[in-house]
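Task: encode each sequence below as structure tokens.

Item 1
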Amino acid sequence: MKSDVAFSSANNGAIAGLMPVRGILGTVVSGLGKRVVSGEWQSGEALPTEAALMEELGVGRSVVREAIRILNAKGLVRSRQMEGTTVLPRSSWRLLDPDLIHWRMEAADRNALLRDLLRVRLVLEPGVAWTATMSGSPAAKARIHAAFQTKLAVLSEASSPEAQREHFIEHDLEFHRAFLAAVGSEILEQLFSVIEATLSLMFDVQMQARGSTTTLVNMEETNELHQNVYDAFAAGDADGAEAAMRRLIQHAIEDATKGFSLQD
């Protein structure tokens, strides 16, 4: 069994996993967590007994008990005397816990997670664009200006097609990150930090839908949509920035939906 598995990284911010766990315990927690979120055990179903898990995983009783305690803290399971450990309904799961996000990405739940994330973006980001345009500080607005100019510069940079595509995604993330930072909400910024790796994957799916699998192709429409957001922001048109961001996210949903169908 590998002993170098680590999760709940400290750089995930205040909404990170409840504690950093490494070694054998980290491996057991991660393995059991993925099995729960993948649906191997359904809501209300009991996990194998403590003794059975010890035998299956080749670990001691203390490791199994601590792993179950951590999964309980993440809202995945509940342990009771005489009843054993049962899986809780999804409504109880700590869905913003980075470990759960990571496990869902690895446990055949990726597309459902990305669809959910797109719905969150459609609700939040138009309002973010409005607020950033209306009340962002000069420094925050300067960051948005810089992010957009850097994003444009990627299109003419002298690098390999693969690197250019990777840089495009990185600077697209920074463009959205800069708008969120301009709102001045620590909660929003930490939410973004938790889901950022997932956003990167979602952008990749959207680009694949446009035929951009290893290089930047057919990006004219998405570039125009970003340009519209930026132009309204730069003009101080908060309503226009909000509407442009809504159109941008709606097109992202269309692209992602097409990307999912190509993967099925």
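Item 2
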Amino acid sequence: MPIDHARKTVAGTARALQKGARVMGRIVRRVEKAAGSAPGTLVHTGPHRVEQVRVRLLDYDAGDLHERTLERVQDSFPFAGEPTVTWVNVDGLHDIELIEAVGQELGLHRLVLEDILSTGQRPKVEEYGDHFFVVLKMVQFDVETESITSEQLSVVVGDRFVFSFQERPGDVFEPVRERLRHAKGRIRSRGCDYLAYALTDAIVDGYFHILEQMGDRIEDLEELAISDPSPTVMHRIHHLKREMLILRRAVWPVREVLGSLYRGEVPLVEEETRVFLRDAYDHAVQVIDTVETLRDVLSGAMDLYMSGVSNRMNEVMKVLTIIATIFIPLSFFAGLYGMNFEYMPELGVPWAYPALLAFMATVAGGMLWFFRGRGWI
């Protein structure tokens, strides 16, 4: 049994190390761009998450909307010059020629194209005169593995166009698309800056949903840390602490991005839109506060686990100590009468043996009564 327990412990430690290595791989991205390359060198540094790049177009104004899936991104360029709002969403970043064609058509700076292809960017906003560039992180939570997966979203916003670039299909923008399809609210009557706000606000709202899911699991871990402080609970706490670190890295800079947009540092953002951006900024601050709170709760859960393990160990040691204390005087009597001397008192008395057993039982019972009276057992 001890060997099996040791094997299980080693196996659990190995799995924990492997998980830690995978987490570090998500935090520290492998650099595929050669050191010393010229600024603006276009190299895709992330994994190929899709086989085929998909391009979706939404072109609208207050009275009409056109939605379609395009075979080539070039088919969307005529819409970008129309007096409507054109939203082009690209799923898949490994096609460098496609990204370069977008940059040439829209007049994007080479550094913008480089940042789109470099998926390890920190969330930020950059202003380039006739357009501005926003990088955010879309985050998803796998319920089964309790793991965070993040994806870079790059958004280029001009006067009449919004180009968004994702690493793979699937996002949190379907409510925005539904509002556009059914002309709900003011989104169809506003410009590209409002669409950029709507996309950003959808991402921030997605953070709340993930925090709610993680909060439920952290609450369950707190209860388990008290009632059943097993090694599995410790591994889950460590795992969620690492996942919270990844989530914090994704959401913390969003406050700076929204702050720059609503404070008027980007001229393309209209005054009416800044009011909504300020509300999104408040939401981002709430997300950050919640992340920090959950991290503190996880640290408290670890303290509870260590206290529970310590209390269990103390209970075990108390029982063993009481047993050892009771048997110390009994062992003394047994050793005393176990000596091989010829002349010892009571050796020839018939009732000496049961009398000694009764005396030893009385001593053990008296010690148990004393321990219970002191509240030790």
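Check on item 2: The first strand starts at residue 54 and ends at 60. The domain at 31-308 is CATH 3.30.460.20 (Beta Polymerase; domain 2).
End of task.
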